[in-house]
Fold ABC transporter ATP-binding protein.
Amino acid sequence: MLKINQINVYYGASIHALKEISLEVKQGEIVTMIGANGAGKTSILKSISGLLVPKSGTITFESQNITGIPAKDIVKKGICHVPEGRRIFANMTVLENLELGAFLDSDKAAVKQRMKTVFERFPRLFERKNQSSGTLSGGEQQMLAMGRALMGKPRLLLLDEPSMGLAPILVQEIFNIIKEINDQGTTVLVVEQNAHQALSIAHRAYVLETGRIVLSGTADEVASSEDVKKAYLGG
Ligand code: ATP
């Protein structure tokens, strides 16, 4: 479904953030990328969603070359990015934020149906649908960001640290929801600091270090690597 072939990404002239990165996400998978701070995980997601343009290498989605095309066109192809820090519109209500997620879709009946599905999955958003989004708790804002992405009916969902800053009980809930979204047909690429949880729901995983992929395999293979255990799974 998604293929990244040897991309190199720079910030300015001197920061070489991604070095010859190649990775693949197959239809129906949950793939996770783990790695220390600054390893390049966010930069990979931004390259896929068109927010960063690789200096070399290619990104293809469903066999189409999408390298360097504008972010708004990438969304139209069915890729939705939930950035780190959520980026909801704080002054708008929950409902308005969700509606924005579907603004490209002119099929009002389908949008209404999707809204219903999002509210079923996130009952807490339904209870607060008229509340100003900036007053939601951190976990609720994360749910809203994911709900808004689902309103765009993505085929590939890019999630950047969905569990960041959440209480342990909510972390589990967010991972359960990611699993459910995937079970219902959405392919997921998720970046996580919480390696243990991410590996427990993922099919496959990539480990990044300073802009390079140093290990990849099935989630079980990666989780049983001694280096990964030491560095990311607390021994
Ligand atoms: P984290 O887990 O801390 O979010 P990450 O793995 O997502 O880290 P990136 O945010 O992709 O890492 O950053 C990769 C490298 O690129 C880092 O060295 C970072 O300092 C650098 N970088 C990221 N954004 C910029 C920017 N706007 N300008 C300059 N350097 C940047």
Notes: The chain has a mean pLDDT of 93. The chain has one domain: 2-232. Residues 2-232 form a domain with the Rossmann fold fold (CATH 3.40.50.300).
